[in-house]
What does this fold into?
Amino acid sequence: MTQRRPRVLISYFFENDSIPLGFACRAAFESLGFEVRGFHGQAEHSIQHLIKPANKLLKTLLFRPFDLSQGTRWHNHAYRQNELRRVVAEFRPDLLLVIRGNSFDHDVIASLKIEFAISQCVGWWVKDPRSDDQMLRDAQVYDHYFCIHTNGYSADSGIVHLPALGVYSELYRPTCERREENYITDISFVGGHSTRREQFIRPLLANQVRIYGPGWRKRKRFFDLALMRRWTASSIWGEPLVDLYNRSRIVLNITSWDPRRLSGQNLRLLDIPATGAFLLTDQSDEVLEYFAPGREIETFANAEELKSKVEFYLANPVARERIAAAGLKKSHSLPSYRTRMKSLLDSIGWKGDM
It folds into this structure.
């Protein structure tokens, strides 16, 4: 009888309009010899299409948030936990990896582990740094727990640092030559609104800028024409995103937290150079672990420096494109998601047959 391959179930986002980290990790585990399934942890019951508009109406009438599905099996949290149980029962994984992202109750994870003989239940915090104990409480649910930051936990917490940064070359790659006739914008920025991001972007609005992301059209900014003229869409994913990077003279990355104070870079640090695009990102010690600023990417420490460097690199395309080409070359030698998942397996002492 042929021995079955060890199985990994990954809970994260598995729709085409979401962060592709789950897809990258799934491909990585498959390359390591696992049978892998992705569970979309943001799934909603079809009845939510009716409940959401009703909730919005009730919120307007009652002046407070209201959820008609609260306490029912159609509530998002309850529905997702039931769906996870169904998929676990069907797939019978040896390793359950929950990328946070999603959250599940402690007793749900514990019961799944016992009932379906899951060898390892692993959590991985890939969200922003937190000042409360949310991550520490979350870590207690799992056999092993990883975090993309080094902040918010001590050495004896059992939490292990594991960056989410990896080159996902199956998606992020050059798709056209970097020539003037191929560019559609001077600057592109992709990311949800935050006060920090707005403070950096505002001085650049005299340039040709395209902004993609949720939250930029909040009511207090609706009549802010300078900003709203630069906002293009609430989201962009997959091939359209890769095309945007390829067709931007400068791709701007602004971390939602200050990376000089709190560790953990967002995924764009490696995604953007892998497309051959010119990356201009906020400065931090962690960036230096991957790229040489001024040679392979460029960085800024404050809004004044950002504005100055934007003006310089728009006026000096030869210097800009030399850096972009060097960044692409460097990305070929940076960690892949296969490397990251192998590190995870080594850390938990996985002994499965690969």
The two ends are 17 Å apart (CA to CA). DSSP finds twelve helices and twelve strands in the chain.
